[in-house]
């Protein structure tokens, strides 16, 4: 049985509970992180922990834990669960509040849970050789997608639209038909040997994989630009791909009924995937 850290205790996951008065349960009032473990190593741990604390700050949430304490618990969960391939899930909600009220008092004790899930990255390696289909879906999320909040209904509806269309991921577009990001990934295109992805603002999450890939692109002198691009540019792209902690760099070969380029994973995209995997 998976061990879960919950508010100072290590318990079997199926015996780990928070109260029904948890603000995360009632208001989606909380933040989270998903960190990959690849061949026993935590991937981009510092980037994820930094982003967790940025999200907490943006939500005006305080925890008695500092970065190192969260890192220590994360490592302990990895060890207790003997995790070699998979993810660590961290969730911090604002805490229990009874009676329920939208307004929160100053002093609440956050509920913190950290546990792991085994994941088969080999399957994703196979998928990457074929590339994935995606589906377009309007970006109906709130206007603070830069916060990694557990309020994910817009992402959930998008992901299930993708599932119904036998797609791996939904690609979200705003009311001007510009691509923002995926339901749980950053979206990129390559046009004339230049990588393009949405600029950082309130409409997208600052992806840790995105961040890491940008440094790989710089190192390899591959041109890139952070700029908005339209649905049409996506469909006309030379290559398209998505990045996330769980997919690394994943080629996109279809968007609904449209084929990207020749329908095969782009050579640059596959190169970026192997550079990324080497780097981790
Ligand atoms: N999602 N955009 C959104 C909306 C995301 O949910 C994610 C990650 C990303 C990519 O971020 P990163 O490269 O740091 O994983 C972009 C995780 C994997 C999830 O919710 O499961």
What would you note in describing this structure?
The chain is an alpha+beta fold and 280 residues long. It has 2 domains: 3-120, Aminotransferase class 4, branched-chain amino acid transferase, N-terminal domain (D-amino Acid Aminotransferase, Chain A, domain 1, 2-Layer Sandwich); 124-279, D-amino Acid Aminotransferase, Chain A, domain 2, CATH 3.20.10.10. It has helices spanning 23-27, 45-58, 67-80, 121-130, 153-164, 208-219, 231-235, 267-279, and strands spanning 3-6, 9-12, 30-38, 41-42, 86-93, 111-118, 132-138, 169-173, 179-182, 186-191, 194-197, 223-226, 239-244, 248-255, 258-259. Strands 7, 8, 9, 10, 11, 12, 13, 14 and 15 form a 9-stranded mixed beta sheet that branches. The protein is globular and about 55 Å long. The mean pLDDT is 97. It binds N-(5'-phosphopyridoxyl)-D-alanine (PDD). N-(5'-phosphopyridoxyl)-D-alanine (PDD) binds next to helix 6 and strand 13.
Structure summary:
30% of the residues lie in helices and 29% in strands. It is an alpha+beta fold and 280 residues long.
- Roughly how many Å is the radius of gyration? 19 Å
Name the ligand types: N-(5'-phosphopyridoxyl)-D-alanine
- Unreliable stretches, pLDDT < 50, 5 or more residues? none
- Quick check: average pLDDT? 97
Biggest sheet statistics: 9 strands, mixed
CATH-level-4 superfamily name of the largest domain: D-amino Acid Aminotransferase, subunit A, domain 2
Structural class: alpha+beta
Report the β-strand fraction as a percent range.
Answer: 25-35%
Order of helices and strands: EEHEEHHEEHEHEEEEHEHEEEH
By CATH, the architecture of the largest domain is named Alpha-Beta Barrel
Q: Could you tell me the number of beta strands?
A: 15
The coarse overall form would be globular
The helix tally amounts to 8
What portion of residues is helical? 25-40%
């Amino acid at each position: 049985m998976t061990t879960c850290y919950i508010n100072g205790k290590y318990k079997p996951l199926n015996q780990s509970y928070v109260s029904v008065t948890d603000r995360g349960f009632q208001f989606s009032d909380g933040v989270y992180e998903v960190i990959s473990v690849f061949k026993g190593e935590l991937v981009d741990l510092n980037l994820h922990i930094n982003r967790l604390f940025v999200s907490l700050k943006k939500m005006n949430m305080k925890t008695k834990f500092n970065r190192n304490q969260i890192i220590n618990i994360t490592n302990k969960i990895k060890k207790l669960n003997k995790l070699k391939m998979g993810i660590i899930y961290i969730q911090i909600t604002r805490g229990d509040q009874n009676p329920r009220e939208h307004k929160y008092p100053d002093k609440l004790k956050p509920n913190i849970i950290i546990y792991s899930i085994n994941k088969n990255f080999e399957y994703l390696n196979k998928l990457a050789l074929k590339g994935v289909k995606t589906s377009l879906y309007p970006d109906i999320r709130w206007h603070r997608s830069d916060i990694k909040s557990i309020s994910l209904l817009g992402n959930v509806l998008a992901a299930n639209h993708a599932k119904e269309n036998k797609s791996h991921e939904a690609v979200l577009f705003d009311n001007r038909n510009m691509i923002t990001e995926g339901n749980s990934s950053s979206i990129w295109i390559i046009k004339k040997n230049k990588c393009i992805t949405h600029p950082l603002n309130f409409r997208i999450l600052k992806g840790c994989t995105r961040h890491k890939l940008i440094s790989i692109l710089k190192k390899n002198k591959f041109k890139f630009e952070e700029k908005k691009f339209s649905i049409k540019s996506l469909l006309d792209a030379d290559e398209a791909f998505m990045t996330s902690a769980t997919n690394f760099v994943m080629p996109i070969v279809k968007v609904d009924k449209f084929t990207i380029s020749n329908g095969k994973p782009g050579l640059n995209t596959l190169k970026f995937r192997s550079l990324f995997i080497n780097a981790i």
